[in-house]
Structures are given as structure tokens and as C-alpha cells.
Design brief:
Layout: E1 2-6, H1 9-15, E2 22-26, E3 42-43, H2 54-57, E4 65-67, H3 74-77, E5 85-87, H4 94-109, H5 112-120, E6 137-141, H6 145-154, E7 160-165, E8 172-174, H7 178-181, E9 187-190, H8 204-209, E10 215-218, H9 227-235, E11 240-243, E12 263-265, H10 276-293
Parallel strand pairs: 1-2, 1-3, 3-4, 4-5, 6-7, 6-9, 7-8, 9-10, 10-11, 11-12
Bound molecules: NADP nicotinamide-adenine-dinucleotide phosphate.
């Protein structure tokens, strides 16, 4: 028998009927331990919550796999007990997060906030002075699930996309080429995991390499961008930004980012569209069955690489 732990009754419903030999325990990782935790081999923690505490994890004496519902694994890496495999939710939120990135690019380039202001003031602010996506050069930093989806969405609208990743390959440029590429792109989308390598990757030098009037989009993790360096570029009105993620999160009420010029901000909603549970628990179901049958798992995180 394989015993798995799901965070709540809704998760149990979404997973559906499981093959015989798989038992389910419901526990959210934060409340008091429930009976049966000591036999749990697969833990599925709740989405968008801090990782289960090291103390609480001690109750899971048989743990072999942690299956996350998020693509990001940064908060779990230090928490993972030795010998336990970590799998992420890559693919679950990529479509909705790419969609938000594309929406942010379009909104910024086509000045949608300006038109919403005009609409609210009953003002017919007709003009044709903005540059859209046609002919824009867009750099995708990260050529994984999100990066490739954004690239595939922008190309039919006339954008020229450049993908950059850790491992160069056909159609994907190497990270070592980044500094030479930045001055040639009017839009930069951050779609990399938060790792020791990407911590503050977008610093003052990175931003200074972007051309005047360029747009930075971050839908990955807030701390990949140096907030103060970005604030300086926004305040001087040299760069524009669209952020779904910030450092810190949640953003304190008096944080200067709220009022920074040329910035649109959403509160880390990229992955959270209706239906995410169905997508996530379809993956969980597949993984649990693979684990139970001893088959290779999907989305195994390379702990040494941090993603
Ligand atoms: N806003 C939200 O709600 C939301 C939703 C989903 C995900 N996210 C965040 O977005 C991140 C990316 O998601 P994903 O599903 O696209 O991940 P993914 O499929 O694993 O792709 C990650 C990409 O980043 C590249 N990469 C890793 N380290 C790099 C580095 N140091 N420099 C340059 N490129 C690097 C990888 O390169 P290789 O291809 O060479 O390995 C890969 O192309 C997640 O880790 C998560 O933190 C946010």
C-alpha cells in the first residue's frame, strides 16, 4: 500500500478515484498532525503557502516524495529532508502565467492604463503614437515552460523573440551572451527560477544595459530583480515595468513601488486562474500512480541546480 497526503478535501475530490493500494491522508502541513502521517510516502503541500515546518515534517517518518503544486521550488529546497525526492508543478501554471506576461506587455506597450483613466474621465483620447509588438525585439530570459509559451504567443503578433537559458541549444542563446543582447531588446521578460544564480540577477548593470524606454516584465520571483535598482530606473522615467512578483511579498502599503511611474503591478496572480486545481491534481494523480507502480516520475527537481 502507498499512503499519500493531500492538503484538503477539495484536493481529494480533484484527484478522483485512485487505483487500489493507494490510501489518502488529509493534512495541510500546518495544523496538528493527524493519524497515519508516519506511513505517508508522498506529501502534497498546499499551494502558495510557506513550506511545512521542519518540526512538522518529523511526523512523516516514511516520506520519499514531495510533490509541489507550484513551478517554483525555492521555498522548499532548504526544507527537504535528506533522501526525499522533490517534484514541482511545472506545466500547471505556465499557460496562465505566460498569458499574464503577454497581457502585461500589451497593456504597457499600448498604454491601456492611460486609456482606462481616459474612459473613467469620459475623455476620447484618440492617438496613434505608440509602438506595438510588430517589429519589437523581445528577450525571454528563461526558455522553459513560461518562456517558450510567451515566445510562441508573441511571434504571430510580429515580435522578434530571443530566448536565453542556462544551457544553449538550437534556438536558445547562452546566458554568457546576455549582456550583449540586452541593449538590442525593447522588452525583457524574466521567466527563470529563483536560485542562487538568479538572485538579484536583474541588478543596476542589467537594467542600465536595457535601452531607453524599454520594458521589464517579471512573472517569475521578486528577488530575481533588485527592487531599489528598478525603482531608480522607474523614478527617472527611463524604463517601464510590469511585475506580477515583487520583493518583498506581499508589498507593504507604504512601499514606493505602489506609486512608481510607468509600473503596472499584479499581486502574484500568474498561476492562479480558475481551473488550476484540476490541472494541478491531474499531475498529482499521474505522479502518485507512477510512484505507486515504481515508474519514473515527471518534473523531478535537480536540487543541486535549484530547479
Ligand atoms: N507568477 C506566477 O504565479 C508564477 C507561476 C509559475 C511559475 N512562476 C515562476 O517562474 C519560474 C519559471 O517557470 P517555468 O515553469 O518556465 O520553469 P522551467 O520550465 O523550469 O524553465 C526555467 C527556465 O529558466 C532557465 N534558467 C534557469 N536558471 C537560469 C539562469 N541562471 N540563467 C538563465 N536561465 C536560467 C532554464 O534554463 P535551461 O532550459 O537551460 O535549463 C529554463 O529554460 C518558476 O521557477 C517560478 O518561480 C511564477
Amino acid at each position: 500500500v502507498t499512503s499519500i497526503c493531500l492538503p484538503d478535501a477539495e484536493a481529494r475530490d480533484c484527484v478522483g478515484t485512485l487505483p487500489g493500494g493507494i490510501d489518502v491522508v488529509i493534512w495541510d502541513g500546518a495544523s496538528d498532525p493527524v493519524p497515519g502521517l508516519d506511513g505517508v510516502e508522498v506529501l502534497v503541500p498546499p499551494y502558495m503557502r510557506p513550506p511545512t515546518s521542519a518540526e512538522a515534517l518529523k511526523a512523516l517518518a516514511s516520506l520519499r516524495l514531495v510533490q509541489l503544486l507550484s513551478a517554483g521550488v525555492d521555498s522548499w529546497l532548504k526544507r527537504l529532508p535528506p533522501g526525499v525526492v522533490l517534484c514541482n508543478g511545472r506545466g500547471v501554471h505556465g499557460g496562465s502565467t505566460a498569458e499574464l506576461a503577454v497581457g502585461g506587455i500589451v497593456s504597457s506597450l499600448r498604454e491601456l492604463p492611460r486609456h482606462l483613466d481616459a474612459q473613467r474621465a469620459h475623455r476620447w483620447d484618440q492617438h496613434s503614437g505608440v509602438t506595438g509588438l510588430d517589429g519589437r525585439r523581445v528577450l525571454l530570459l528563461g526558455a522553459g515552460d513560461i518562456g517558450t509559451r510567451v515566445a510562441a504567443s508573441l511571434t504571430p503578433l510580429g515580435a522578434e523573440v530571443t530566448l536565453v537559458a542556462r544551457h544553449a541549444r538550437d534556438g536558445v542563446r547562452a546566458l554568457t551572451e546576455l549582456s550583449g543582447l540586452l541593449p538590442e531588446h525593447q522588452v525583457v521578460v524574466i521567466a527563470v527560477p529563483y536560485t542562487t544564480e538568479t538572485h538579484q540577477l536583474v541588478d543596476a548593470d542589467f537594467l542600465a544595459s536595457m535601452p531607453d524606454g524599454a520594458l521589464l516584465v517579471n512573472v517569475a520571483r521578486g528577488a530575481i530583480v533588485n527592487t531599489n535598482a528598478l525603482l531608480a530606473e522607474l523614478t527617472s522615467e527611463r524604463l517601464h515595468a510590469f511585475l506580477d512578483v515583487t520583493d518583498p511579498e506581499p508589498l507593504p502599503v507604504d512601499h514606493p513601488l505602489w506609486v512608481a511611474p510607468h509600473l503596472q503591478l499584479t499581486p502574484h496572480i500568474g498561476g492562479g486562474t480558475l481551473g488550476w486545481q484540476q490541472r494541478a491534481y491531474r499531475l498529482v494523480r499521474e505522479q502518485v500512480i507512477r510512484f505507486h507502480r515504481g515508474e519514473p516520475l515527471q518534473n523531478v527537481v535537480k536540487v543541486a541546480d535549484g530547479y
